[in-house]
Amino acid sequence: xxxxxxxxxxxxxxxxxxxxxxxxxxxxxxxxxxxxxxxxxxxxxxxxxxxxxxxxxxxxxxxxxxxxxxxxxxxxxxxxxxxxxxxxxxxxxxxxxxxxxxxxxxxxxxxxxxxxxxxxxxxxxxxxxxxxxxxxxxxxxxxxxxxxxxxxxxxxxxxxxxxxxxxxxxxxxxxxxxxxxxxxxxxxxxxxxxxxxxxxxxxxxxxxxxxxxxxxxxxxxxxxxxxxxxxxxxxxxxxxxxxxxxxxxxxxxxxxxxxxxxxxxxxxxxxxxxxxxxxxxxxxxxxxxxxxxxxxxxxxxxxxx
Length: 305
What we know:
Layout: E1 2-8, E2 13-19, E3 22-26, E4 34-39, E5 50-51, H1 54-63, H2 68-84, E6 90-94, H3 104-107, H4 113-117, H5 128-137, E7 142-148, E8 152-158, E9 161-165, H6 186-194, H7 200-209, H8 212-217, H9 229-249, E10 254-258, H10 259-264, H11 266-274, H12 291-304
Parallel strand pairs: 1-4, 4-6, 7-10
Antiparallel strand pairs: 1-2, 2-3, 5-6, 7-8, 8-9
Helix pairs in contact: 1-2, 5-12, 9-11
């Protein structure tokens, strides 16, 4: 089965035609036997891949409120692909699904019960397709995966299952990213809204587009930030997150790096690893991201069911 894998991220759109385990980059919606779409946020409803119909489209649209940088581009790609290729099955493959195994202690926020039970405020986790691929390539019991790209997340994988991760209700939580802030004291955000007159949309835009490496150093390229506070903050927070994931795993066998920065910046990797020497010896593999293969496999399994 030839699967067209459509990966609409926050900063790019990638198309691959996958035949078996061979993937060819494509720049248009070519004929295929099926189409698989990466969707970042599946919420509580979508815990595994699902065939796309109008109802699923509406549900993905509703979840765009939580992950606007990701679900909206994915939804646009789904609609365009369904129009261009109406006679083949389309399957949504969710980044959040890999993190459905998070235990309650890792997925639960200490907030009022109504928020959790009625409004679904919990930790979902993201970058699941990337982490799933890395875990399939690095076969150790206690693995931490650093997905470092435009978005960044750190995930603890125990015997192939996600048991903790840094991103939570939305892809904004966690370590600093290219233009996203990562975790910020909610008291500071309330202060900006109440006392400094910042509008809600201004706050949203600043946290999503003007923060992270860009906000700290004026660039999203770690190569341009050597010796700056921006890179110090970035690598320090990531190293701290890896250490926290080691707690979830009871130790560390391997620390895998993937994503554009994780694969491409030896300096970032070295700075992070040096701060973790106290954890003892562990492997440090670099795993090229192959989300298109995970998408294709999920599509075949879903259609097979």
